[in-house]
Amino acid sequence: LDGNLTVAEGAKLIINAGTTVNILAGDRIIVEGSICAGDSSCGASPASTGNPIRLRWATPPSEGTGNCYFNPINNPDTGCGSGLFLDYTIDRALTKLNYVSFEKAYGIPIEVTTGTYRYAALIFNDASIDARGLTFDEINTTNILVLNSAAPTISDSTFTLGIDENGYHGPAIQAHDAGKGILGSLTIRNS
Q1: Please, what's the b/e burial string for 127-160 (b: 16 or more CB within 10 A of its CB; e: otherwise)?
Q2: What is the rounded CA–CA span in Å between residue 96 and residue 35?
Q3: 34-37 β-sheet, strand order
Q4: Contact assessment for residue 123 and residue 70, using Cβ atoms and an 8 Å cutoff
Q5: What CA–CA distance (Å, rounded) separates 100 from 129?
Q6: Residue 184, number of CB atoms within 10 A of its CB
Q7: ∠ CA(37), CA(132), CA(3), 5° rounding?
Q8: Are strands 108-113 and 116-125 parallel, antiparallel or unpaired?
C-alpha cells in the first residue's frame, strides 16, 4: 500500500491467508465498513498459525518528520501513525481478524481524554468483534487499544511491550472506557 487506506462504510476489504501486505511507514488502514482477514465466514481463505496474514510496515526513514508532527502531539517519529483502526461504524458480522501478524507498526495516536493521547498498532473504537491468533512484532507503542465501549474478544494471541526509545512505548494492551457494562466486556482468552 502506498498511502493511507480507508475502507468506507458498506465496503469490504478481503485479505486471504498467506497474504503479506507491505505498508509504508506512517501509513494506516482505517476500517469504517468491514475487513475480512483470514476467515471463510466472511469471504476470505482461512488463515492459521502456519499460514498467517502479515501486515508489515516498512522501516521508517531515519531523517525528517512523520505524520504526527503537529500540535498538540508533536511526535517527530517518521513511523508515527501506522496501524489498523477499526471504527464504530464497522459491519460487525463481516469483520474478522484471524491469524493476523502486525509487524513494525508504530501506532496510531488517538485522544483518549482531553489532551491525553495514546498510540496503538490496533485500535478498537467502539468496535466489538472476535479476533483470534493475532501476533505483534517490533511495535513501538501499545499493541491494542480498546476504547469507547468497545468489547472485543481476543483469543490465542501473542503480545509484546512497546519498544519505542523516545518515551512513547506502551503496555501490550490498554483500555479506556471499554466494554458495554452487562452487555459485553473486553475479553482476552488463551493469550
Answers
A1: bbbbbbbbbbbbbbbbbbbbbbbbbbebbebebe
A2: 6
A3: 12-15, 34-37, 96-98, 130-132, 153-155, 187-189
A4: no
A5: 14
A6: 15
A7: 40
A8: antiparallel
Q: Is the pLDDT of residue 180 over 90?
A: no
Query: What radius of gyration do the chain's Cα atoms show?
Result: 15
> Which cell is 168 given?
512513547
> C-alpha grid cell for residue 68?
504526527
Tell me, what amino acid is at 30? I
- Residue 169: band (very low, low, confident or very high) from pLDDT cuts 50, 70, 90: confident
End-to-end CA distance of the chain: 30
Give the three cell numbers for residue 33: 465498513
Confidence at residue 182, expressed as pLDDT on a 0 to 100 scale:
66
Q: Rounded to two decimals, what is the model's pTM? A: 0.95
